[in-house]
Design goal:
By secondary structure, this protein is an alpha+beta fold. Helices cover 23% and strands 27% of the residues. It has one domain. The strands form 7 sheets. Strands 1, 2, 3, 4, 6, 9 and 10 form a 7-stranded antiparallel sheet that branches. Strands 14-11-19 form a 3-stranded antiparallel sheet, with no helix packed on it. Strands 5-20 form a two-stranded antiparallel sheet. A hairpin with a 2-residue loop joins β16 and β17. α1 packs across α2 and α1 crosses α5. The protein is globular.
Length: 330
C-alpha cells in the first residue's frame, strides 16, 4: 500500500475525494497509454478483481521532531460512553460528535472494538475562505457584467499541514503506470480547478504494509469505508435488511469529464449519491470482500484526442477497513 502525501503549493479545493482522485489518475493513464488501459481497469473492477483501491484525501501534520500525525475520518459509529455528569463533559461530548477527523491511533482503537475511546488532540485547521474571482469578457475586456464576479471556496493550509491518500495496488503489473500517473499529476494538478492554480502539490510516495498503517481487527463484524462508496444491488439489499447495524451519511456528487485532458461541450456527468467516508456497514457472510461498483455517468460515445471513449464511470469502490463493533451509540 502507498501513502501518497500531497504538500500544497497554493490553495486547495475543500474536497478532494476518491471520485476526483480516480478521475485524475484515469485521465492521466489515458493520456499516457490510451483509453484501452483504463477500460481494462473498469472491466476488472466490474469483475470483482480491482487492480487498485484508493481512499479520499485526509490531512496530516508534521511535528517539529520530524514525525507525522495522520488523520482519518471519524467512524460514524462510536463506542458507548457514560452519560456526561458535568457541563465540561457535556461540552466535550458535543465537540467530539462534531469532529470530522480523528488521529490514526484513535481511529485504530475504535475499529479494534475498544470502549470508552476519547479522541486525542485537536482537529487540524482546515478553515475555508471565500476568494473573489472574475471572468473576463474577451470582446469587451470587462468584468462588470452580471455573473462575471464570483466567489470560490478555497483552503489555505498551515505550513505544517498537508493532504494524503491511500493507494492499495492489488495488481503488481499496474505499479509502474500508477506511479507515472501520480508524478504526471504533480506537474498538471489535481481536479478541475488546477487550471486556475489550485490543487498543485509536491508529491511523496511512501510504501507501507497495509497492516502497518491500518488496524487489523480480530473477528470483524463491520467495515469502515475510507472512500466514497456506491454499493452493488446485493450490498444495498443486505444493508436494508440490517439497517439497525449501519451508520452512514449520504452526499450527492456531480462532476465534469476530463478537465484539461478532455475539453468538450459534453462535460457534465450524471449526479451520483454516495455513502461518505467513515460510514460503517455490516460484513456480508462475515467476509471482507470487494465492496462497491463504478456507476455509469455518461452513456454517449465521446471522441477524445486519445481515441474514442465508450464509457465514462465514476469511482464508487469502497476502501474497506475491517472493524469490530460491540456497544455503539448513534
Amino acid at each position: 500500500m502507498w501513502i501518497v502525501r500531497l504538500k500544497p503549493r497554493g490553495s486547495v479545493s475543500p474536497e478532494l475525494r476518491s471520485d476526483t482522485l480516480f478521475g485524475c489518475i484515469a485521465w492521466a493513464a489515458v493520456a499516457l497509454e490510451g483509453p484501452r488501459r483504463v477500460e481494462a481497469w473498469l472491466t476488472a473492477f466490474e469483475d470483482g478483481d480491482p487492480p487498485f483501491l484508493l481512499s479520499s484525501t485526509f490531512p496530516y501534520q508534521e511535528g517539529s521532531d520530524g514525525g507525522r500525525v495522520y488523520f482519518l475520518p471519524r467512524p460514524l459509529h462510536w463506542p458507548r460512553l457514560p452519560e456526561p455528569r458535568t457541563l465540561e463533559e457535556y461540552r466535550s461530548r458535543k465537540k467530539m460528535k462534531k469532529r470530522r477527523y480523528v488521529p490514526q491511533d484513535t481511529f485504530a482503537r475504535v475499529l479494534l472494538g475498544e470502549l470508552d475511546v476519547q479522541p486525542s488532540g485537536e482537529d487540524p485547521r482546515l478553515q475555508s475562505e471565500s476568494v473573489l474571482h472574475n471572468r473576463i469578457n474577451r470582446l469587451t475586456w470587462g468584468t462588470t457584467e452580471p455573473g462575471r464576479l464570483f466567489y470560490q471556496e478555497q483552503l489555505f493550509l498551515p505550513t505544517n499541514t498537508g493532504l494524503y491518500f491511500l493507494l492499495d495496488v492489488l495488481h503488481e503489473s499496474e505499479t509502474g503506470l500508477l506511479k507515472t500517473c501520480v508524478h504526471l499529476l504533480e506537474h498538471l494538478g489535481w481536479g478541475g480547478n488546477s487550471a486556475s492554480g489550485m490543487n498543485h502539490f509536491s508529491v511523496e510516495i511512501e510504501e507501507k504494509g497495509r497492516e502497518d498503517f491500518l488496524p487489523r481487527a480480530d473477528s470483524p463484524t463491520h467495515f469502515v469505508t475510507l472512500s466514497l462508496y456506491f454499493p452493488k444491488p446485493r450490498e444495498r439489499g443486505h444493508f436494508a435488511a440490517h439497517a439497525d447495524r449501519c451508520w452512514y451519511e449520504l452526499v450527492w456528487r456531480r462532476g465534469k469529464i476530463g478537465g484539461r485532458f478532455f475539453p468538450s461541450g459534453h462535460f457534465w456527468k450524471r449526479a451520483v449519491n454516495y455513502f461518505v467516508e467513515g460510514s460503517v456497514f455490516p460484513l456480508i457472510d462475515g467476509a471482507l470482500g470487494c465492496f462497491g461498483c463504478n456507476p455509469l455517468v455518461k452513456a454517449v460515445e465521446l471522441k477524445s484526442p486519445y481515441g474514442a471513449l465508450r464509457q465514462v464511470r465514476s469511482f464508487g469502490m469502497a476502501f474497506a477497513v475491517p472493524a469490530k463493533v460491540t456497544g455503539v451509540q448513534e
